[in-house]
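Dear H.,

Thanks for agreeing to be a second pair of eyes. The structure we're designing against is below in token form, covering all 923 positions.
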């Protein structure tokens, strides 16, 4: 069996929390808590726990549970992080794991769930823990997978729980381990990933074997230095807990779980007793009683617990009046565990619901787009929606239909179910390959295929597709109720490129088919995915008789498979707003910058009163002004920006110059409200800049590269960005922005097909949407060819001629010289020059006059006070203007009868720049 080869991987404990080695230490106390015996326990159970206490107490508390096969050691970093936020945290190893005694009951209400209730009671007796009343601590519960189910089960049976954050977990163990994708939607649900209401399905043998194998580890002895908590909940005089003994074939599991697994592994079919046991261990048994605010986080790469599990939990809690926020992230049991950004979401959830601090996280829906980039470190982009579709009065999921074609095909199930098709490898995560599992294999003779025509437009699938199939028996087949098939959703993106998004497969179990060969028509709900189909891609539905991850019937059989009556596949879509770019080690710029500005505009009402008080009327006409502006980080003695005081006027094209490290980017960030100054102030049109300042609606920016949603076209990206600002589509001046971009028909292509120059032009158009009064551009000429740079130069000059202002940071000195009329030059965080380009370039005051008569011109200039060092060339005169303005010199020449062609400073910007920065010539 394939899963056996993965036992070592699983036994190490999947779902480990990410570790940040730089996290500061938090005081921790190691404990051994003795809990009362449950039904069938030989003795009390010893629970190995750690109590993390924040600096200030009493404080709200969090109970932290681990994933299956793990222990409290996997939770150290998350526990420390929550303690640093100000929570008392109790992390522990569940019975049968780590150094805790007792047998594994798979979150049995009488065992693991009761253990957790006892731990809540123990927290209620701690003086460090904030209380809602006698025996009622302020407490939240968090955990992933096994620990996530514990959080749900505890919240559904103990009303003392105030908030929960279950991650990548299950709702119904019968559905999760014995799925059946054939049937009607659950209770008419219109949520994106609602599964069907069907009977017992096909045993998920590979995952189940891996999980069961991880329960065979011996229980290690507790450390001698652990402190036994004397006032832990226990019966006086009760004997100390001792490791239970049991059949070797059961490992650490209790007899009920052991018997159920043995039955499923040998027969593939559950008895009524096993169905009832799995139902009693499932959160679905208590979700209608959960009133604690619930943050559900589910993974896109998860063949163990798919989106349908979180979908069902969200519906059940919401229908009972509970509050739910949903996040689908780019990970899962086949991918990454929830990372620091998601754990911060958990901390924010508890901050608001337990500690009454921070912003309300709300009850919206957020999903991550798949990483289709060439490397795994590419930013993960997310989309947000105000509400999870189909919940609490929200509109149901939008669906679009695509016609499939294909012939009725007989498919063979070989004796013993081998060889078998491959969809995914549990725990290894081939289903989590970016863009889909390209290693999926269907065997000849075992598969029927149905395909669509190439798509004319791209589609972002968010949820579970549905397809109708007809299945009929070939005469002479055994009638043993073993009609089992597997449906898969493939993306055919060209040639033989076949991708299985998420690695998921939809098992179908039907009863005996009609003996006369008439078909049974069923609606099949395919696994929930987040996946982009590009224009030109085709959809393929493959129906196979076997799958390596599931237990197929052993008897050979043949069925006839064809499309259902409507011959369509229904694809769910959930339109939303780009919310953030999550990168592993990059600043919050690019697309996030755009979104921050959009959200700032949307927050006008909340901040208007504060911003009005911070208005300076004398600077109302100044697009950008700073006064003593400074920025330092940490304990550094060297300021990144220091004592910067400048003022920019309307109609100017201003160049921001300086060597690397001069403070240019930091200045732009403070201007855009992305970071706060350490000293001084920055104002835009007289308004003090803070995060969310309404005046930022008058600013367009393109800073350090724009982050676009790769699956959307250029035009769709522009429209999506403008939608985040809350302004009307008409106010975007979209046609004018598109004319500036000059992308032609390419504006309708997906952005991930754009060259760097095309992305640069699209970013410039995005910054100019709405024709803002202040345009801030960082390296706008990067990736542009010379004709495009020439066009950009003219666009900026024309833009400023309308009375608007442009601030350009660039390292192309010749372009700055030709594009800008004013300069701000920084060096080591300080201002070294500010003013018109001609004044700065002139330096020592030398100007060149192109004239028709150099001799007459030199005589005329000698007559003007304040002019010296005059030299003649063949067609020009150079003079040093000490106290005489250039305009006066030109007037003297004209009055003397000299024809003046042009006038300019003698030096170049490069020379002036090198002189100002002492030779550090990299802006």
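And this is the sequence the design step returned. I haven't edited it by hand at all.
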């Amino acid at each position: 069996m394939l899963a056996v080869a993965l036992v070592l991987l699983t036994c190490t404990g999947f779902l480990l929390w990410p570790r940040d080695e730089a996290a500061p230490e938090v005081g921790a106390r190691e404990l051994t808590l003795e809990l009362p015996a449950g039904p069938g326990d030989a003795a009390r159970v010893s629970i190995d726990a750690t109590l993390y206490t924040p600096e200030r107490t009493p404080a709200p508390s969090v109970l932290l549970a681990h994933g299956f096969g793990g222990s409290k050691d996997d939770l150290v970093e998350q526990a420390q992080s929550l303690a640093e936020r100000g929570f008392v945290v109790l992390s522990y190893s569940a019975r049968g794991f780590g150094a805790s005694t007792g047998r594994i009951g798979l979150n049995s209400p009488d065992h693991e769930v009761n253990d957790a209730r006892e731990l809540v009671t123990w927290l209620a007796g701690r003086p460090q823990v904030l209380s809602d009343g006698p025996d009622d601590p302020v407490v939240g519960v968090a955990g992933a997978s096994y620990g996530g189910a514990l959080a749900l089960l505890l919240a559904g049976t103990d009303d003392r729980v105030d908030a929960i954050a279950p991650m990548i977990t299950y709702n119904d163990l019968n559905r999760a381990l014995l799925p059946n994708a054939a049937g009607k939607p659950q209770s008419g649900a219109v949520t994106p990933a609602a599964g069907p209401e069907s009977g017992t399905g096909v045993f998920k043998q590979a995952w189940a074997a891996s999980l069961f194998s991880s329960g065979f580890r011996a229980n290690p002895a507790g450390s001698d230095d652990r402190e036994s908590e004397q006032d832990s909940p226990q019966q006086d005089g009760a004997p100390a807990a001792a490791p239970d003994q049991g059949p070797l074939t059961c490992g650490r599991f209790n007899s009920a779980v052991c018997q159920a697994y043995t039955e499923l592994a040998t027969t593939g079919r559950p008895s009524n007793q096993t169905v009832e046991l799995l139902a009693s261990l499932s959160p679905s048994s208590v979700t209608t009683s959960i009133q604690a605010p619930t943050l559900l986080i589910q993974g896109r790469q998860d063949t163990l617990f798919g989106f349908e599990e979180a979908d069902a939990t969200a519906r059940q809690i919401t229908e009972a009046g509970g509050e739910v926020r949903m996040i689908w992230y780019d990970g899962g049991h086949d991918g990454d565990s929830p990372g620091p950004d998601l754990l911060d979401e958990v901390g924010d959830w508890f901050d608001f619901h337990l500690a009454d601090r921070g912003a309300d996280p709300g009850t919206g829906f957020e999903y991550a787009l798949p990483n289709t980039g060439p490397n795994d470190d590419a930013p993960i982009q997310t989309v947000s929606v105000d509400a999870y579709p189909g919940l609490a009065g929200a509109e149901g999921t939008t669906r679009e239909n695509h016609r499939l074609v294909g012939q009725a095909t007989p498919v063979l199930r070989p004796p013993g179910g081998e060889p078998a098709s491959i969809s995914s490898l549990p725990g290894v995560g081939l289903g989590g390959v970016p863009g889909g599992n390209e290693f999926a294999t269907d065997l000849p003779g075992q598969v029927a295929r149905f395909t669509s025509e190439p798509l004319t437009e791209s589609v972002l699938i968010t949820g579970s597709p549905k397809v109708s199939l007809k299945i009929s028996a070939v005469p002479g087949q055994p009638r043993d109720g073993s009609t089992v098939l597997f449906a898969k959703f493939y993306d055919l993106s060209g040639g033989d490129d076949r991708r299985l998004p998420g690695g998921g497969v939809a098992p179908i179990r039907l009863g005996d088919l009609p003996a006369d060969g008439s078909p049974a028509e069923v609606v099949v709900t395919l696994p929930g995915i987040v996946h982009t189909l590009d224009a030109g891609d085709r959809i393929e539905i493959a129906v196979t008789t076997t799958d390596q991850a599931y237990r197929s019937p052993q008897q050979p059989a043949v069925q006839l498979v064809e499309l259902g009556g409507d011959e369509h596949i229904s694809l769910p879509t959930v339109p939303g707003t780009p919310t953030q770019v999550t990168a592993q080690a990059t600043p919050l710029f690019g697309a996030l910058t755009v979104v921050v500005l959009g959200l700032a505009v949307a927050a006008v009402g909340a901040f208007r009163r504060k911003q009005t008080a911070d208005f300076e009327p004398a600077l109302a006409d100044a697009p950008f002004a700073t006064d003593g502006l400074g920025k330092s980080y940490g304990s550094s003695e060297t300021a990144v920006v220091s004592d910067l005081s400048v003022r920019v006027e309307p109609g100017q094209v201003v160049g921001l110059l300086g060597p690397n490290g001069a403070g240019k980017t930091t200045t732009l960030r403070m201007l855009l409200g992305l970071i706060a100054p350490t000293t001084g102030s920055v104002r835009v049109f007289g308004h003090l800049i803070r995060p969310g300042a309404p005046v930022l609606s008058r600013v367009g920016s393109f800073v350090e590269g724009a982050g676009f949603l790769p699956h959307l076209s250029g035009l769709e990206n522009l429209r999506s960005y403008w939608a985040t600002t809350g302004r009307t589509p008409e106010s975007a001046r979209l046609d004018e922005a598109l004319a500036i971009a000059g992308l032609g028909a390419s504006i309708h292509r997906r952005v991930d097909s754009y060259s760097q120059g095309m992305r640069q032009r699209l970013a410039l158009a995005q910054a100019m949407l709405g024709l803002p009064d202040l345009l801030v551009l960082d390296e706008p000429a990067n990736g542009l060819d010379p004709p495009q740079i020439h066009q950009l130069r003219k666009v900026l000059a024309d833009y400023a001629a309308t009375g608007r202002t442009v601030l350009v940071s660039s390292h192309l000195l010749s372009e700055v010289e030709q594009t800008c009329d004013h300069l701000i030059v920084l060096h080591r965080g300080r201002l070294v020059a500010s003013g018109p380009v001609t004044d700065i370039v002139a330096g020592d005051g030398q100007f060149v006059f192109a004239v028709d008569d150099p001799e007459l011109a030199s005589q005329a200039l000698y007559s003007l006070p304040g002019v010296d060092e005059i030299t003649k060339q063949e067609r020009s005169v150079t003079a040093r203007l000490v106290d005489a303005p250039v305009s006066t010199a030109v007037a003297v020449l004209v009055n003397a009868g000299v024809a003046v062609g042009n006038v300019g400073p003698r030096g170049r910007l490069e020379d002036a720049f090198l002189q100002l920065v002492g030779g550090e010539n990299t802006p």
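Two observations from my side: Residues 844-906 form a domain with the Alpha-Beta Plaits fold (CATH 3.30.70.100). The chain has four domains: 2-12+28-180+197-215+246-363, 398-573, 588-837, 844-906.

Warmly,
E.
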